[in-house]
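Good morning C.,

I know you're traveling, so I'll keep this short. The sequence:
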Amino acid sequence: MLKFNKMKILIQPSTRFRIALMFLAGILLFTVRAEGQPIKVDLKKLPEKRTLKLSEIGVTDVQYIPLETSAECLIKSIRNVIFGNDFFLTQYFAEINMFHYDGSFVTKIGTIGRGPNEFTIAHCTDINPGTGSIYVADGFQQKFLVYNKNGKVLRTFKTPLTGPLSFAFTDDGILCYYQNHMGTVENSYILIDTLGNILRNFPNRYPWKRTVPNVIYMGENIFYRFNGNLLKKEIYTDTVYAYRNKGFTPNLIIDVGKLRLTPEIREKNDAKYIMGNFLTPMNLFEFGRYIYYEMVIPWEGETEGLSWIGSKDGKFSVLFDPEIDLINDFDGGPKIWPRTVKENSTMVSWTDAINFKQYINSSDFKALHPLNTERKKQLEKLAISVEETDNPIIMLIKIK
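The tokens, ready to paste straight into the viewer:
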């Protein structure tokens, strides 16, 4: 810690004013540079694959939320969790369920079908931060469905185009992304209002024409939120853009070098060649001072699904298998597969009840000496209260 002598220094008022201006100018200059320049991450050479402990990324707490199980709510699986102020949603294709934060079941969202207030598939789901209303997009039926906090359908309106899409709320509307599986999309992003009126089109920056059998990429575009910003990354660019003022600003660059797929490569090559030679993004988000990037890449002669966590200052970088390599040494609980983020510093995962119960009852768990032994005892109690046929358990991993 720096220490200063308690020595009185006399400074003339004009001198004080000049020093204050210089100090303020320095702050402003630093702020402009920090905000104006995107963070750069060099992944041209990936680190060696290894296991990663939660303690290495500064985990301070792990919360477990068992989801209520009833005849009305039996969850097959979870693909996504969407967080609101008073509730959260679990989604598995067209199955959407609402829960309170204590895990108690509230209601199912929507009815499957082709009727005016029904959907056949939920391409994307999000919560309007201003009203708490739930929006579900069925791109094949070309419509949005809007539900209130009690799960009651309020209205429907048309989507701009027909086809699979993802969307996210912005300060000025709803930003829709249309997946370009067939090479025919003219506007990748379309900004609409909550009635479906088009506010702005964003032309496709990466056009290509289909000359080989079609390849469908789940990670063509990834939306996520951090520090109050909506961010997006398309498969053909290393740049992650923040959406602000009806436009996109570079926020983060993840340089993967020769592993980056280009429109020209996609246009001329089949799926086997592309998957064996280039990176396919699967998930991306920021949490605390870290970046999480999940990908399918060529690795040691095979095609593997791997994940990378790195610090934004470039001092920490780990490549690992997301299914087995992120070790919970905080309370000894099950291994963590990062799925999404809640707020800025809470990583989210989930596990099936049967896997949780079997693991806690295993000899491997009993032999562990985690950082927090009291929490380990709580997990043992939780395992007793959970049945193997129960719904999944949500895990919230807090990062300092």
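Safe travels,
E.
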